[in-house]
Every structure is written in structure tokens, then in C-alpha cells.
Design brief:
- The chain folds into 2 domains: about 100 residues, no CATH class; about 200 residues, Orthogonal Bundle (Cytochrome p450), CATH 1.10.630.10.
- About 60% of the residues lie in helices and about 5% in strands.
- The chain is built from 16 helices and 6 strands.
- It has a two-stranded antiparallel sheet with strand order 1-2. A two-stranded antiparallel ribbon has the order 3-4. It has a two-stranded antiparallel sheet with strand order 5-6.
- Helix 9 packs across helix 11, helix 11 packs across helix 13 and helix 14 runs antiparallel to helix 16.
- The protein is globular.
- The termini are far apart.
- InterPro entries: Cyt_P450, Cyt_P450_E_grp-I, Cyt_P450_sf, Cytochrome_P450_Monoox.
- This is CSON000502 protein.
- Keywords: Heme, Iron, Metal-binding, Monooxygenase, Oxidoreductase.
Length: about 400
């Protein structure tokens, strides 16, 4: 009897919390959804919770399938709400282009909130328009062709490491290559962004690598669990404590690199010599160096500002590049005749030596490979969903207005 009573009390408390959480937001949600164009339809939900019950304990694959099913069923524009979360999902290219190119709509949606403890207000997660524009301006030089050209050597070196690892599987049974690709891209991104080697592919005991992999997994879990996305419910989950520990570890690692590089640059500036490695060779200009030399409104960026951008660059670059390469390999495996054509073009450009490094000039000669890569990106986007918070009415198509 006591256990039954206890269960009833706990359940009642839980339901009450959800009710008050929803009630505070429900009227605004309902009014907004009802005032949106009748041309946009969507799945009907339950009172108060909307479609939330379908996403309390979902599998990420099933979640994505449901989103695809909904968009196809409702002509690629749907409106819905799940408890206190309301949204309009559009999958029409013209609608997406209109929203993504409008400077009024730079504010990120709440879908990015789960990453903010780690990435804070970096370029990927920042919501304030003015801050985004200023950060974007100082980061643009990092993508200049001359700087990217410097890092082709890094990509070649890390690709050689990956090749040697994959050779062990040649002629054997099938295996999951995604883990190896993830470590490869982590090596490349970290060296190009922070100017330091982490040896993700070869050092199985790297604390930083293990922390990034585990934290990414936790964030992936949170992103697909409806209740955990809310900060109040999130703090009661088992993953929260581990998440906080990993964030501190990663921040500490990045802070140490930033401070060491700042001191090194100051020392070499005083001595009038360029920053060099142990062999006396001038170091490449990493993203970190650009941030250390940058100013916003006449002030140098703080270590925290720099950490935000390096962590954002590492996470966003590593995650998206990993997805893009994995999907490319998947498509090549599914289409062996296309795979053969790509191979023949590579041999034609680079020769038969599999260890020959490629140069930037070689890239322009991969005509067919470029088409294959772009088609793979079209079919399987590394970032399938992008969220924006709209604070103004917008007409996305004739007679279709979001308010």
C-alpha cells in the first residue's frame, strides 16, 4: 500500500510539473499556431502535449523517419507543437533559401540549447545578431585559400595514418568505418583549428578524444529525447552529471592550449622571431592564431571568447565532415561502377602510387569526383535540420505567412 501511495504521489507530482510547464506556454503556442496560414497543415496532437508523447523515449533513427514521413504527408510544410515546443518545419528549397539568406533571421532556435554548455556563444550557437556578425567577420580570414592551402599537408599526413589503419581490414570481413573516419577528421580539425596534434587515430588513451566522443554521444541522446531537451528535466537525468564533468575537462584542455599559444606568441613577438616548431620551421597559421591576433571594437578577444570559437569549429567541422565522408563512402559502396570511375580518375591525376600526396592544384582536376561528392551531399546532407527563431512575420510563399 505504501509503495502504491508513493508511486501515485510521484506520478501526480510529475504530471503537475508538466501541466504547469505547458500551461505557461500553451496559450501563446495555440494562438500562434492558429494564426498561422491555413495553407500550412500538420499532424494533430493530444491536448496540452501535442505530439510530445511520440518523442519522449525515441530512437534517433525513428525520430528522423517520423520527420520525413510528416514532411512528405503534409507537402513539405508542416506546423505542430509538442508541449511547450512549437515549430513550423519547411522542406521546400525556395522557403529555406528565403529564410537562410535573410539577415533578420540569424537567431538560432532552441534546438541548439543542448550544446550551449559546451560551445557557449560561438558562431554555431550564438543567437545575438550583432555578436554573430562581428565573430563572422574576424573568422572569414581563416578560410582564405592561402591558409587552407597550408593545411593540405596536414590532410595528407593524417590520411596516410588512416590508410595504414584501414589496411589491416583489407580482404577481411566487413566492418564499421565510421569510427575511423571520425578520428581522422578530429585529427585534421584540431590541428588546423588549434595548431596542435591530438593523435586521435593512434592514441587510444587520449583523454581529450575520449571526452569529446562521449560528450558528443550524450548530446546526441539529449537532442532526441523530448523531455531531456528542457533544462529543468535535463538536470534530473543521469547523463547531466557526466555531461558537466566532460565539459569541464574539454574546456580545461582548450584553455591550456590557448594560454600556451598566447604566451608563446607574446614571447616571440618580443624577441622579433616568428612562432616556430621544435625544428625551427615556421608554424602554420591556425584558426587559433587568427583569433589571438583579432580585435572586436578595439579590444582583444579573451581566452573564453577564443575557446568558444575553437570549440565550435572543432565540433561543427569534425561532426559535419565525418558525416559527409561516411555518406560518400556509403554511396560509392552502393554504386561500384561509379566507384570504379572515381578510382580511375584519381589514378589518372595522381598516378598509380597510392602514397603520393595530393596538392591543391590536383583538386581542380578531379572533375568527375567533384560531381560525385556534390551529389552525395545533395542526397545526404551532413546537417539535415537547421533551426531558426523568427521574431518577425515572414511570407515564405504566396499566401503562406508565418506569424
Amino acid at each position: 500500500m505504501f509503495l502504491l501511495l508513493f508511486a501515485v504521489i510521484i506520478s501526480s507530482t510529475f504530471v503537475s510539473l508538466i501541466y504547469f510547464k505547458v500551461k505557461n506556454n500553451f496559450h501563446g503556442v495555440k494562438d500562434t499556431i492558429e494564426s498561422e496560414s491555413r495553407e500550412i497543415h500538420g499532424p494533430k496532437g493530444y491536448p496540452l502535449v501535442g505530439k510530445g508523447l511520440e518523442f519522449i523515449f525515441p530512437d534517433s533513427v525513428e525520430t528522423f523517419k517520423k520527420i520525413i514521413d510528416y514532411t512528405q504527408k503534409w507537402d513539405y510544410r508542416i506546423r505542430a507543437y509538442a508541449a511547450w515546443h512549437r515549430f513550423v518545419l519547411v522542406a521546400v528549397p525556395e522557403d529555406i533559401e528565403m529564410i537562410m539568406t535573410d539577415q533578420r533571421f540569424l537567431e538560432k532556435s532552441e534546438d541548439y540549447n543542448a550544446m550551449r554548455d559546451w560551445l557557449q556563444d560561438g558562431l554555431l550557437t550564438v543567437s545575438k545578431k550583432s555578436k554573430w556578425q562581428k565573430r563572422r567577420k574576424i573568422l572569414t580570414p581563416a578560410f582564405h585559400f592561402s591558409i587552407l592551402e597550408e593545411f593540405v599537408q596536414v590532410m595528407n599526413q593524417q590520411a596516410s595514418v588512416l590508410t595504414n589503419i584501414l589496411k589491416k581490414h583489407a580482404g577481411g570481413e566487413g566492418f564499421d568505418i565510421s569510427h575511423y573516419i571520425s578520428l581522422y577528421t578530429m585529427d585534421v580539425i584540431c590541428e588546423t583549428s588549434m595548431g596542435t596534434k591530438i593523435n586521435a587515430q593512434t592514441d587510444v588513451n587520449s583523454e581529450y578524444v575520449k571526452a569529446v566522443v562521449e560528450l558528443s554521444s550524450i548530446l546526441h541522446w539529449r537532442q532526441h529525447h523530448f523531455l531531456a531537451r528542457d533544462n529543468w528535466f535535463w538536470k534530473w537525468t543521469n547523463n547531466r552529471k557526466r555531461h558537466d564533468h566532460l565539459v569541464k575537462k574539454i574546456h580545461s584542455h582548450t584553455d591550456n592550449i590557448i594560454e600556451a599559444r598566447r604566451i608563446e606568441k607574446q614571447k616571440n613577438t618580443l624577441n622579433g622571431v616568428p612562432v616556430a616548431d621544435d625544428l625551427g620551421i615556421k608554424k602554420r597559421t591556425a584558426l587559433l592564431d587568427i583569433l589571438l591576433d583579432s580585435t572586436i571594437d578595439g579590444a582583444k578577444l579573451s581566452n573564453e571568447d577564443i575557446r568558444e570559437e575553437t570549440d565550435n569549429f572543432m565540433f561543427a567541422g569534425h561532426d559535419t565532415t565525418t558525416s559527409a565522408i561516411n555518406f560518400l563512402l556509403y554511396n560509392l559502396a552502393k554504386n561500384p561502377e561509379i566507384q570504379q570511375k572515381v578510382y580511375e580518375e584519381i589514378v589518372e591525376v595522381l598516378g598509380s602510387d597510392p602514397l603520393k600526396p595530393f596538392s591543391v592544384n590536383d583538386l581542380s582536376n578531379f572533375k568527375y569526383f567533384e560531381l560525385v561528392l556534390k551529389e552525395s551531399l545533395r542526397l545526404y546532407s551532413p546537417v539535415p535540420i537547421i533551426g531558426r527563431y523568427l521574431r518577425e512575420d515572414v511570407e515564405i510563399s504566396k499566401n503562406i505567412k508565418l506569424t
